[in-house]
Amino acid sequence: MVSAAYPQHPDAPTAVRQEQEIQSVRALQQCMLPDVMPNHPQVELDAVLYAATEVGGDYYDVRPEGDDRLLLAIGDATGHGLPASMMATAAKTLFQTVAPEEPLTDALSRFSGTIRRMNLCGLYMSLSLLRYNARTLQIATAGMPPALVYRAGSGHVEFVVLKGLPLGSIHDFAYAEQTVELAPNDQVLLMSDGLSERFNDAGDMLGYRRIADFFASVAPLPPHALIEQLKSRSDLWAGRPATDDMTFLALRQK
Questions:
Q1: Phi and psi for 140 in degrees, rounded to 5?
Q2: Largest CA distance in the chain
Q3: Domains in the chain, CATH or no CATH each
Q4: Residue 25, SS3?
Q5: Going residue by residue through the chain (254 aa), what tens digit of pLDDT does each one get?
Q6: Measured in whole angstroms, how far is the alpha carbon of residue 196 from the centre of its chain?
Q7: Which of 14, 56, 98, 199, by CA, is between 20 and 30 Å from 63?
Q8: N-term to C-term CA, the chain
Q9: Are 45 and 37 in contact (CB under 8 A)?
Q10: What is the 3-state secondary structure (H, E, C) of 98-162?
Q11: Which residues have C-beta within 8 Å of that of residue 138, sequence separation ≥ 6?
């Protein structure tokens, strides 16, 4: 289905119709994202989706849970185009159903079962769920890249690696959760794999070690400026346009 914002003419050339379809799906993808980030008394946060030439299934979301608690998500559907966008839409719908008292691992298991029952023909969703509460960040992951935690006191970057299969892939997979305690000016970075899997002209993949080095060098910046710097440095390193969406979610303890 094509959005009314991008009407198709039946006699339009195939390339024009395809571009109209891409723009329509891209508009849908952008509409699903939060308009603004919450103004929170304890943390600064921002998230950005940088679109590539193809439509992907990247997604992020945030929801206040009361008493200064926040529920956050960042995800990446398999594939490209309309199917990936449909999976991201399903993830957004499921995100809205997480109860404030529900453990994140239980939510991921419930999401995975729902997606399996939807029978989406081999489509899966990688997703990280996070809950912030009073300098404590809980993280549970289903197939997403590791979270990076910058420690302002030491200048070091820690990796939060949680193994977990994408949602919809395996029945009754036991997802894991980790709790991270944050000190003032510590910053947490989450990303889709569009960043780590960028290649340069020499055929080298950017990878997490280079990302951690980039992150450490700009981590004292506020979240939005940090994300812009990471995107700019990855562009400079790759020397070519990105072929996959890149999504960032950054949170800094005040």
A1: -130, 140
A2: 63
A3: 46-253 (3.60.40.10)
A4: helix
A5: 334 444 445 555 777 766 666 666 666 666 778 888 999 999 999 999 998 866 678 999 999 998 889 999 999 998 777 788 888 889 999 999 999 999 999 999 999 999 999 887 788 999 999 999 999 999 999 999 999 999 999 999 999 999 899 999 988 899 999 999 999 999 999 999 999 999 999 999 999 999 999 999 999 999 999 999 999 999 999 999 888 889 999 999 99
A6: 13
A7: 56
A8: 44
A9: yes
A10: CCCCCCHHHHHHHHHHHHHHHCCCCCCEEEEEEEEECCEEEEEEECCCCEEEEECCCCEEEEECC
A11: 104, 130, 131, 132, 177, 178, 179, 180
CA atoms of 183 and 252, how far apart (whole Å): 9
CB atoms under 10 Å from CB of 178, counted, come to: 13
Q: How far apart are CA 60 and CA 128, in angstroms?
A: 9
* pTM of the predicted model as reported, rounded to 2 decimal places: 0.88
